[in-house]
Amino acid sequence: MSQVPAARRALAVLRLLAGSAGPLPASSIARSLDLPRSSTYHLLTAMAEDGFVSYLPEERRWGLGVGAFEIGSAYLRHGPLERLARPLLHRLVDSVGEIAQLGVLHGAETLYLLKEQPRRHATLVTDVGVRIPAQLTASGRSMLAHLPAAQVRALFPGPFVDRTGHGPSSLRELRRELAEEARRGWSVEDGYVTEGFASIAACSFDHTGHPTAAVTVTFRREKRPENTWPQLATRVRATAAELTTRLGGHIPQR
User: Fold this and answer.
1) Would the CA dihedral through 135, 139, 140, 144 be positive or negative?
2) pTM score, two decimals?
3) What is the mean pLDDT of the chain?
4) pLDDT at 164 over 80
5) Are 113 and 102 in contact (CB under 8 A)?
6) Is the sign of the CA dihedral 89, 105, 142, 77 positive or negative?
7) Which of 153, 233, 222, 220 is nearest to 188 (CA)?
């Protein structure tokens, strides 16, 4: 247990470097983490020997090493997001009797990673691996609603595409919808992707409060009147919140 403080300091260094815009001087690392300079140099040297950080002599700065990249790559190979979310989607499907999906942002598109559905349910366009313009999907907008305005503007510089003639057709319209959905805590898509189908989505967050994924339920519009949507949204938000907890994340304060 005597090594636990050192391990925590090493993890703090990795988090700091991962969250910075570029490599940092040792003095900045020591100051940010409230560590003695001598201890910081010893720690960085030990981490460099194992490849988790690297020293850039010309810049006199420290950055992430190949070891950190290997850990990150292994994390992606294990598919942790899908593994953590799958049982939650199973329970959501059992609870509401509708299709449930997990999506992430892929640039200006929603990429679907998981889909769970009841038996004898209609097949949707939004299957696993499919990408749809993010502004048209409830899952995409639930994540966009928690991004900085400048980032949203950068993602949508040109003309907006549509599938059914519905949905935001300009950045101004999109911003208006995102602001409303951010206040409400969930997003809705009504025939933007497939005529006759609607979706409700809520966002999950990582440890920095950044939008990581979205949980969505999709249903035939004729089966569920609009006045029942808030109740369904409560179930979706609860699932998204549980995924946030499993990710070690937190919902950002607006």
Assistant:
1) positive
2) 0.70
3) 88
4) no
5) yes
6) positive
7) 233
